[in-house]
Amino acid sequence: MKKLLKLLICSSLVISLFGCGQSNNLEQKEDNSLAKIQQKGQLVIGTSADYAPREFHMVIDGKDTIVGYDIDIAKEIAKDMGVELKIQDISFEGLLTSLNAGQVDMVIAGMAVTPERLEAVDFSIPYGKSTDLSEGQKLVIRKEDKDLYTSIESLANKNVAVQKSGLQEQIAKKQLSNSKITYLSKIPMLVLELQSKKVDAIILASDVAKNYANENPDLYVTDIPLVQEIEGTAIAFKKGSNALVEQTNSTLQRLMSDGTMDEIIEKNEKIVEDLNKK
Q: Which CATH number applies to 133-221: 3.40.50.12240, 3.90.1150.10, 3.40.190.10, 3.60.15.10?
């Protein structure tokens, strides 16, 4: 009887200990992604500010300022949360690392949702004005070469540069497998390599390609078809940030349903267009 009593007591202690452990684990898994931001009163976003009209640097009242339609969207997200917005400018390939390290709360940088990225982070709903996938990505060449490069086949064994870790990297690997691919961190570096004849072509998102061509008369946006298998872009979050994702989706849905999204995008496209005329 004494042995049985001791066994029951020990069993109760084991159950109690494991019960406490389970309770603690549940507490640790509790999603406080939104509450933490609201508590500190600040939303920190990561972006790569070399992607006009999405995010780019502009001097306003003598001060270097990061602007663009992704930034305006981030301001709306922060406003709906009731917090201030802080922007961290990070190289594109370092954005998701910074996100998972807790250095930023979300990444908004014209980022496409790919299966590989979905394994590492969560995403918002896609957002933007255009859903025409055929217009998603463009090959940009020097204007003097517009009669030379008229197809993907014509770029065989030629040098094509793309932004490292971007959607364009995957497109180049799949659709320009006979070309020599160069990977660079920043969009302006791609443009400079093209202009200095170190590469023969670069791949950019359609709106970004058109802006750079407008700004640089020596560049030419081709009609060479590139297939963008992924629709739109989305905002990235650390895995398990369900409350933060839901709050952000609510803002994005509002902006797209009431026409504000189109207004924000068109306003920033006009800003870049005016800058290019100066």
A: 3.40.190.10
